[in-house]
Each structure stands twice: as structure tokens, then as C-alpha cells.
């Protein structure tokens, strides 16, 4: 509970694959909090500097100023304790510490809104979002549109070959796919292109 306002805090999580509108939804909720004249602070991990260093930005170019943190504890260090609403984007890049931090913030009366990927490029639960879901008062799962068939998509398909859990990069390195079209690991089309390229190479060498 907030000792000044007497308000109870809570945790809201917005999760889903890339391109599903998580950042848009986070920004929408934070804008409404500002309209309600609440004190708002927004954080994002340093790893996500894809578009802007001091703003969260959606794929459709919706923007909101934010503070960059290297890890979850830095959120507590940067926190103005008068803040009523705390937004965190790309929480899956902040490590497991974000669970404890979110709990602490909610326990002290803050409304915590967290956006992040719930599954990784192989479709596995992506820590620490699953644990946050267990602690949250409210959960929203956003879906994208499958780039293969147009159905609702819950997967983030990696289009480049890498075994690393985190490959941050241009949006053309990933696309949204539905359950049916998702290909964990290297997508077939990529392999096909490699095969074609190899064939062309051997043809040229001949
Ligand atoms: P996230 O934070 O989940 O990655 P964003 O909020 O940044 O998503 O972007 C959502 C926006 O991305 C949509 O409103 C739409 O304009 C655009 N977009 C691009 N590709 C897709 C897709 N495959 N499915 C849905 N929206 C897409
Ligand atoms: Zn599909």
C-alpha cells in the first residue's frame, strides 16, 4: 500500500510475440494514466536501442519518453518514490530480477505495467515473463498476424540462423507466425534459399 495515498498497487502484464502490439498497448495505458494526472515513469532495457535511446517506440512509430536501465535493480535506483505508475517495456531483457522489483513496486502501492515476449524463438517460455504472469493481477496476451497465412500469430519466427537466445536486430530478422506456420529453429524457406544458392554456386563453378 502507498503510505501517502493509501492506494493498493498491482501488476499488469502485456505479453505476446513481436509485432503483436505490446509496446502500443503499454503506451496506450501509460498515456491514459497521464491523462488521469498520475505520476508516470517508464523504463526500458539498454539492450533495446533499436529505434531510440530515450523513448519506447512501437513498430507503428508510437512513442513515449523512457529511461534506460542496465538491469532491474536500476529501476529502483532511478525511481522517484512519488511515482504512481511504472511502465517497463521489453521486460524479457531485464533478467529474473525484474520479478522481485515488480513485486516490491506493487507492494508499495504502485501500478506496474510490464510488456515483454512470453516465448522465445523456439517457442519456449521466455523467463522471466512466465513468473511475472504468476504474480500479476492482470494479464493481456496480444497476438500478431501470421506473415504466412494471415491467422492470429502467437510465435516470433527467427529468420536468421543463430542459436543465441537473444539476437536483437532489425525487424527483418523476425516475423510473426501462427501455431501452424511456426518453424522452430531455422525456417525452411531460408534453408531452401541456401540450397538454391549452393546449387547456383556449383553451376557457376562447373
Ligand atoms: P510489439 O511491441 O509487440 O513488438 P508494437 O506495438 O511495437 O508490437 O507494434 C505493433 C504494430 O506493428 C501494429 O500496430 C502494426 O502496425 C505493426 N505490424 C507489423 N507487422 C505486424 C504483424 N505481423 N502483425 C500485426 N501487426 C504488425
Ligand atoms: Zn500461419
Enumerate how many helices there are, as a single number.
Answer: 5
Calculate the terminal CA-CA distance, rounded to whole Å: 75 Å
- Looking at CATH, which topology would you report? Rossmann fold
Rg to the nearest angstrom?
A: 19 Å
Shape: elongated
Sheet with the most strands: spatial strand order: 5-2-6-7-1-8
Number of strands: 12
Could you state the CATH homologous superfamily?
Answer: P-loop containing nucleotide triphosphate hydrolases
Our count of domains comes out at: 1
CATH structural architecture: 3-Layer(aba) Sandwich
Query: Which class do the helix and strand fractions yield?
Result: alpha/beta
CATH class: Alpha Beta
Helicity level: 25-40%
Mean pLDDT, all residues:
88
What percentage of amino acids are in beta strands? 15-25%
Distinct ligands, ions and cofactors found in the model: adenosine-5'-diphosphate, zinc ion
Order of helices and strands: EHEEEEHEHEHEEEEEH
Flag low-confidence runs: 190-197
Q: Main β-sheet: number of strands, strand sense, barrel status?
A: 6 strands, parallel
Q: What can you see in these coordinates?
A:
Helix 2 runs parallel beside helix 3 and helix 3 packs parallel to helix 4. The chain has a single domain, classed as P-loop containing nucleotide triphosphate hydrolases (Rossmann fold), CATH 3.40.50.300. The N and C termini lie far apart (75 Å). The strands form 4 sheets. It has a 6-stranded parallel β-sheet with strand order 5-2-6-7-1-8, sandwiched between helices. It contains 5 helices and 12 strands. About 4% of the residues have low confidence. The protein is elongated, with a radius of gyration of 19 Å. It is α/β, with parallel strands linked by helices and 206 residues long. Helices cover 28% and strands 24% of the residues. Bound molecules: adenosine-5'-diphosphate and zinc ion (ZN). The site of adenosine-5'-diphosphate (ADP) has 15 residues, from helix 1 and strand 9.
